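In this supplementary section we document a worked example of the pipeline. Step one takes a protein sequence of length 145 as its only input; no multiple sequence alignment statistics are reported here. Step two produces a three-dimensional model, which step three serialises into structure tokens for compact storage. The input and output of this example are shown verbatim.
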Amino acid sequence: MRGAYLLCLLAAGAAVALLDRRWRLALWHPRGRARTVAVGLAGAALLLVWDVVAIDAGFYGRGDSAALLGVWLAPHLPLEEVVFVVFFAYVTLVVAGAADRLVAAASSRAGHGDDEADDAPPDDAPLDDTPLDETPRPSRRAVLS
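The serialised model returned by step three reads:
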């Protein structure tokens, strides 16, 4: 089906945007819209330059696929490649935002966060006698929010 690859890229991008919006990881981060767009476009530009250099050096060739739309922006550079590069840069920023959030949550739970640093017990404090299976754990939802 002509254009199926582009359609899949756009659908995947929409799904990532929904995750981003729900968890406010990149574009919907309170202080991140302009930063996300700037870093995403810079990353996409770098990858496109890489693609053009590789095409010029003969590493990439024109593929014939029924899934491509058939719009060529340059020799051996289909429209789908540009959309993929932008998608890849955006996914990278969303994953980085999620990783940052998870590391911050783990750090604060371990007592290494700024808020809990003063409340941490001294290194020579006696161990808690609470059995491991009775230790309350935060839910996954609490970790990501």
